[in-house]
């Protein structure tokens, strides 16, 4: 069976995209569907390559029973556009940067996270300069969106 591959992308790959990766991985594992998905995250910038997620993202995930502490930040690569079936940008700036970098053939794979999952044009706000409450709000938004992804994955989820 082919696996459906999803890449979550934010700016530095330390706040939003690691949370989305952890949430979706948690959801598919709890549903017994982990073998049907390849899940990863990346950043459009390379400032934090090799770093663990932001401690506040780790804490919010842990408070919800999800461990993202072993993830490491990486920058998106050209190969990712071939490797992944779906690439979800956390905000409009990430989306614009992905579209600039992506080959034309990959343009149909790239979407704004909230547009694809929640049907809105909202950005998932970057909580980096915020407080714990901002990280909690981002977690809630990501959880809601990630909960909709199985429906979007269709046959991969139900087969």
Notable characteristics:
Rossmann fold; four-stranded parallel sheet; alpha/beta; 44% helix; 159 residues; 13% strand; single chain
Overview of this protein structure:
It is built from seven helices and four strands; from the N terminus they run βαβααβαβααα. The mean pLDDT is 94. The protein has helices spanning 16-30, 55-63, 80-83, 92-101, 113-118, 132-153, 155-158, and strands spanning 4-10, 37-43, 86-89, 110-112. The longest helix is centred in the C-terminal third of the chain and has 22 residues, at 132-153. It starts with a strand and ends with a helix. Strands 2-1-3-4 form a four-stranded parallel beta sheet. It has a single domain (4-158), classed as Response regulator (Rossmann fold, 3-Layer(aba) Sandwich), CATH 3.40.50.2300. It is of the alpha/beta class and 159 residues long.
């Amino acid at each position: 069976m082919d696996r459906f591959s999803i890449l979550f992308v934010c700016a530095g790959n330390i706040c939003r995209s690691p949370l989305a990766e952890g949430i979706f991985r948690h959801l598919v594992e709890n549903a017994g569907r982990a073998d049907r998905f390849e899940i990863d995250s990346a950043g459009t910038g390379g400032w934090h390559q090799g770093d663990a997620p932001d401690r506040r993202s780790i804490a919010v995930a842990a408070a919800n029973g999800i461990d993202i502490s072993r993830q490491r930040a990486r920058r998106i690569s050209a190969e990712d556009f071939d490797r992944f079936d779906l690439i979800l940008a956390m905000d409009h700036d990430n989306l614009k940067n992905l579209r600039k970098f992506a080959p034309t053939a990959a343009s149909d794979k790239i979407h704004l996270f909230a547009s694809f999952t929640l049907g809105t044009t909202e950005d998932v706000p970057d909580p980096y300069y915020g407080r714990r409450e901002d990280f909690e709000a981002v977690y809630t938004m990501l959880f809601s969106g990630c909960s909709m992804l199985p429906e979007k994955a269709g046959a991969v989820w139900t087969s």
